[in-house]
Amino acid sequence: MKVKHVFPQYISEFIGTFFLIFFGCGSMILAEVNPNYAGSFVPIIWGGSVSIMIYALGHISGAHFNPAVTIAFWSVRRFPGKRVGGYLLSQSLGAVLASSVHFLIWGASHQFGATEFSVSMGVGFLVEVILSFALMFVIISVATDSRAVGELAGIAIGSTVALCAFVGGPLTNASMNPARSLGPALFSGGILEVWPYFLAPVLGTLMGAKVYEWIRCQKDQESDGPGCC
């Protein structure tokens, strides 16, 4: 019976990641190829895509849509290790398929929404770590702490993505997600330069998860009262 329940979770992660990249990177492509397209809406589209997919699929798979998030949940024992590989593969395939569809729609005369640093490597790496920390800190709060308002999880996480994109977008394109960087990198020819976008989000989300678990100050079975201890 367990096997029957695992496959839909993988499909959900595939679909959610696909639409995250399709809409998010698609808006970046439109801003690049169409001078009349309002590029200032790109961060809002990223945040909105995340929110919508969380509400659509969160009850099935947990709505990770991000290998770094999956690894971070596993690191604090809030996700089973036997499912990590399936989630990572599903997320990566969803991202690659989204970039494939972008190729079919717009050809290859654009950057596919690829991530790249407009600052030095060290500064860009630090920015990605900070953004990923913030994202995971919010995710683990609304997803695992019964004191948080769970019904607003999609809005909280989507808003975090949008804020990170507004601030980090001009610096690093605000990836926070190895799968999000993988698909565009494969089609834009930048796969050899994308390694910081694999490493920095994982480091940031690991720290975000660990810090929140540290300040949680209560076990899951304890009182739901406000504050610690």
Characterise this structure.
By secondary structure, the chain is mostly helical. It has a single domain, classed as Glycerol uptake facilitator protein (Up-down Bundle), CATH 1.20.1080.10. Helix content is 70%, strand content 0%. The chain contains 8 helices and no strands. It has helices at residues 2-33, 42-61, 67-75, 84-106, 121-144, 153-172, 178-188, 195-215. The longest helix has 32 residues, at 2-33. The chain is globular, with a radius of gyration of 17 Å. The chain starts with a helix and ends in a 14-residue tail after the last helix. 46% of the residues are buried.
CA radius of gyration: 17 Å
Q: Percent of residues in helical segments?
A: 55-70%
Tally of strands:
0
Low-pLDDT sequence parts: 221-229
Shape field? globular
CATH third-tier fold name: Glycerol uptake facilitator protein
CATH architecture: Up-down Bundle
Number of helices: 8
Largest sheet composition: none
Secondary structure class reads mainly alpha
CATH-wise, what's the superfamily? Glycerol uptake facilitator protein
CA-CA gap between termini: 39 Å
How many domain modules?
A: 1
The amount of beta strand, in percent, is under 5%
Class in CATH? Mainly Alpha
Order of helices and strands: HHHHHHHH
Give the overall pLDDT as a whole number. 92
Structure summarized in a few sentences:
This protein has 229 residues and is mainly alpha-helical. The protein has 8 helices and no strands. The protein has a single domain (2-215), classed as Up-down Bundle (Glycerol uptake facilitator protein), CATH 1.20.1080.10.
